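Try it yourself: sequence plus iron/sulfur cluster, in.
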Amino acid sequence: MPTERLLLNFPSKIVKKPIVYRIVKDFDLEFNILRAEITSDLEGKMLLEIKGPKVKIEECKAYLGKEGVEIKEADKGIILDKEACVNCGLCVSLCITKALYLKEDSYKVDFDKDKCILCGLCLNCCPVNAIKSKI
Ligand code: SF4
Ligand code: SF4
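Structure, out:
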C-alpha cells in the first residue's frame, strides 16, 4: 500500500477546522502524525504520514489544497551533501530520531529520510554547510 509523508501548513484561519479527521472519514486513509506544532503566529504545522490507495491519496491532497492547506513533500526536506560533509558528527549528536547517523563500517555520516521528522535541529549546526533544506 503506498505511503506518503506530507508536511502540511495550516494558515491560522483554518487551524481549528477538523481537516485531519476528514482524511480518515472521507478518504479512508490510515494516517500517523509524526510531528505537530502551532507557531507563534497561530499557524499549524504537521508532518503527516498517510497510507492507502494512490488514487485516494491524490484525492486527499486535492481536498487539502482546496481547504487552503499548503502541502510540501517531506522527503525533499533535508538534504545531506556527502561531498561537503567532513564527518565531524555534530549533526548526529543533535538528531533525536537518528535520521543522521554514523555508518559503522566507514565512520561516515549518512541520512535516513524515513526517520527524519523535519524538526530542524540539524539546520545551521554544520560547520561546512553540508545540511540544507528545500522547505
Ligand atoms: S555537522 Fe556537517 S560536517 Fe559534521 S557530520 Fe554533520 S553534515 Fe557532516
Ligand atoms: S531535521 Fe531533525 S530529525 Fe531530521 S535529520 Fe535534522 S535533526 Fe534529524
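One thing you can check immediately is this: The first strand starts at residue 3 and ends at 10.
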